[in-house]
Amino acid sequence: MTHSVTVRVPAKVNVQLAVGAPRPDGFHDLANVFLAVGMYDEVTVTPADALRVTCSGPDAASVPLDGTNLAARAATALAARYGIAPDVHLHIDKDIPVAGGMAGGSADGAAALLACDALWNTGASREELLAICAELGSDVPFSLIGGAALGVGRGERLSPVDVGGTFHWVFAVADGGLSTPAVYGEFDRLTAGTEVPQPAASAGLLSALRTGDTAALADTLSNDLQAAALSLRPSLADTLAAGTAAGALAALVSGSGPTTAFLVSDEESARKVADALLSSGTCRSARAAVSPAPGATLQRP
Ligand code: C5P
Fold it and tell me: Is residue 155 lining ligand 1, measured as CB closer than 6 Å?
């Protein structure tokens, strides 16, 4: 019997994304508060003759299946570190929107890393796995740990944040993706010639998460990339307005977009807001999810 390992991994929303001026290496210093949401990809790894990636799910056609896929890069990086041939079939069952600002690609990287680590029994420590995640991308370490965390540096240096309740969300998926580097580039263009403050976590937001206070979280959500995402995709303003009109407590662009996130009071409001968003014709799909969610997790057969 061929042994295979499956890992389930969540999407994320940034409840605060404070962005500083560009650094000499081109990245931006961040105060990035990640919250994992219960919308999942599953990555299954099976021994094979050579490294191969396949993908299933509604957006599968837009997922790159070559060596640029973060799942493939994760397998290659771990194999190189332990002198193993990365001869595996990685199958991604994709439910997280592609290029949507919900860290779908990063999630697959973290999931593939954990799955390959279990398959190959490398004995790598959590710290080693997190270091490989950080090399793969700024958002990948968070996909491994899940829950909620504050990311500083380029977002990869994490400290866990306590969450004292369940938050209800609706996510509106736009047609097509937005390139993360293009959105950061637009942020630089929009802020050129201005004094960009050093990013800092909001004490009010961290307290809202800790106490599970939805109204306080609604008042403190913020995303410094939102103006840049709206500048590149002005139609997102209509989506944000449609969700707010339907009773969302707050609305914001998720990460670099174009997915938009709506914080709602409960499951019933989530249904109402999702229905209104769909019938507004301002998005491709709308779906409810709750947070926090656990990070990348091995699935027992
Ligand atoms: O780290 P990751 O590969 O996800 O970053 C993708 C791109 O997003 C980078 O090449 C950079 O243009 C931008 N970025 C940034 N500052 C960060 C994180 C990402 O400018 N802190």
Answer: yes
**Cross-strand bridge partners of residue 291:** 167
Active site residue 162: no
Average pLDDT, the chain: 97
> Among this protein's residues, is 12 annotated catalytic?
yes
CA of 280 relative to ligand 1 center, distance in Å: 32
Q: Where in the chain is the domain with CATH 3.30.230.10?
A: 5-161
AA letter at 84: I
Residue 65 has pLDDT above 80, yes or no: yes
CATH 3.30.70.890 intervals, the chain: 167-291
Summarised one tens digit per residue, pLDDT across range 128-161 is 999 999 999 999 999 999 999 999 999 999 999 9
Going from the Cα of 138 to the center of ligand 1, the distance in angstroms, rounded, reads 7
Which of the following CATH numbers is that of domain 167-291: 3.10.580.10, 3.30.70.890, 3.40.50.40, 3.40.50.10840? 3.30.70.890
Residue 189 burial (10 A CB sphere; 0-12, 13-18, 19+): exposed
Q: What is the pLDDT of residue 2?
A: 62
Instruction: Answer yes or no: is the C-beta of 27 below 6 A from any ligand 1 atom.
Output: yes
- Give the residue whose CA is nearest to atom 21 of ligand 1: 154
